[in-house]
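User: Sorry, folds how?
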Amino acid sequence: MPNRILILSPDIISERMAGPAIRYWEFAKQLSQTPVTLATPNAINSTFIPQQHNITLIQHQQSNIDSLIQQHDIIIFQGYIFDVYPQLKSCQKILITDLYDPIPLEGLEQHKDWQPNEATPRIFEQVNMLNQQLELADYFLCASERQRDLWLGHLLALGRINPYTYENIKQRVLIIPYGLPDNTPEYTASALRQTDNDNRFILLWGGGIWQWFDPLTPINAIHQLSKQYPDIQLVFLGTKHPNPDIPPMPIQNEAEILAKELKLYGNQVLFQEGWIPYDQVHNYFLDANVGISAHFDTLETHYSFRTRILHYLWTGKPIITTKGDIFAEQIQRYKAGIVVDYKSTTAWMDAIETMHDADYYSKFQQGVKQLAQQYYWSNVTEPLKQLQQQAKLSTDMYIDERGIRQARYWQAKWQHSHEHCLLRDELKDTQYTLQMAHQQLDAQKQYNMELTKKLEIIENSNSWKLTAHLRNLRQKLKI
């Protein structure tokens, strides 16, 4: 019998959705052969009613989380959900934590300009959040082989790769990348182009401007090319997150200021306000010529999975991107675009000029199509569909007599630590006893030395010598 699945989204599910929300909306659709509950932090908008069979959309909150947990067999979650609902840490259900977003690496980039003593508590909080999930979950999702290696190392350090799990740990860490719709997108309305004669060559930045991205280098490249290629335009699609709790990051302000200083703002460089509804976003990508993504040489880049790249692939757009992440390697391998060096305005200028040439542009389109086929949601979610039938508690996890989740390794670790403490205390007692004995022995030696010196003084005195015959006589009388 298939397991009943609850997906706890940390992000808003509505007409306008960011990456995490889209991911869980697509998860729900792919798993809906049987009933699936998709729970969102926001109240359900009556205008956004899912037409998908077997999907129940509901708001998760403290008042209903216990019943939601009780009604399902498998719970998929991500991020701070584990802290918001501590009931998950003690439930008897199969827990799947989604680690496709290495949050602490993003945090380190976001707070890199802070003083270390100010940033450390934030990063500690993020790492501690992940530690708890890795210590107690049964399955772990990631987006690539690189990420899989990262999380396997983390699991090893936390003791979750142990004699109970060693033989099947690879089946517990599943690669479920972000995906793209199986259907070919159809142009339904004008988005970036208002007329049929609009011949702008549009470079699209298809998502938010986060602190770990580099929008400044492409803007500088547009500035250098603008006189020779006045038809080139760079559009930043998302500048205000649908979640009001997520404000614009400083790098976005820097990008807007730079565009204004270079007199590109509102002309060669546009910042699209707001967030595009999910069912309309494909029109913006179809209206563009090239999709772009730029970032820095960081750990975040190495382990990242740029979801915006998938929208470019879905809508058949060649890509210009910075090197260093998993997609850069694949774009080069499939010849789906051009990969440039970090913070190189010259490299961006060359890449844009190449794409602007119609003959070169067409050469990338076949590679885009082939790479896109690797990421259809129906394909990437296949391991989740199998879990829906076969998922079990981790082999080192059990439910104790109180109904609380426990990892056998951690129980063994605690016992070992407890026994170690007892042995350590016994050793301290023994060391203290030996120390006291040594002190007493040293004191006795000192006393004996002082007696010996006094005896030598007496034996060498005149009175001792004059009374020697009396002592001899007394000795003979005793005999």
Q: What stands out?
A: The longest strand covers residues 36-40. The chain has a mean pLDDT of 87. DSSP finds 21 helices and 15 strands in the chain. The radius of gyration is 35 Å.
